[in-house]
Amino acid sequence: MSDKPSPDILDRIIRDTEKRNVTRSFLVRSHNRANRIVLATCSSMALGIYLWSLYSISRGRNLDSSFDKLPDYTPGKH
Predict the structure, then answer these.
(1) Which residues cross the membrane (predicted)?
(2) What number of other Cβ atoms are within 10 A of residue 56's Cβ?
(3) Rounded-to-integer distance, Cα 47 and Cα 55, Å
(4) Which residues contact 62 (CB under 8 A, 6 or more apart)?
(5) Domain extent listing, the chain
(6) Residue 9 DSSP symbol
(7) Is residue 43 within 8 Å of residue 35, measured between CB atoms?
(8) Per-block mean pLDDT, blocks of 10 residues, the chain (78 long)
C-alpha cells in the first residue's frame, strides 16, 4: 500500500471544496448586499436630517419650537 491517496479521493475532495466555496461566496454576496442597503438607508436618513436642520436654521426657526406648543401638564387629566 502506498502513502499517496488515490486520484478519485482527491477529485472528490476538490469537488466538495469547490461546492462549499461557491456556497460561501453566495452567502458573502448576500451579506454584502444587505450591508449596502443598510448603509444607503442610514446615510440617506442622516443626510435628510442634516438638510432639514439647515433648512430650518435658514428660515430662522429652531428645531425644538414645536415642543414649546405642547400643552401644560395637569395632574389627574389623561
Answers:
(1) 37-57
(2) 13
(3) 12
(4) 56
(5) 7-57
(6) H
(7) no
(8) 75 93 94 96 97 83 61 72
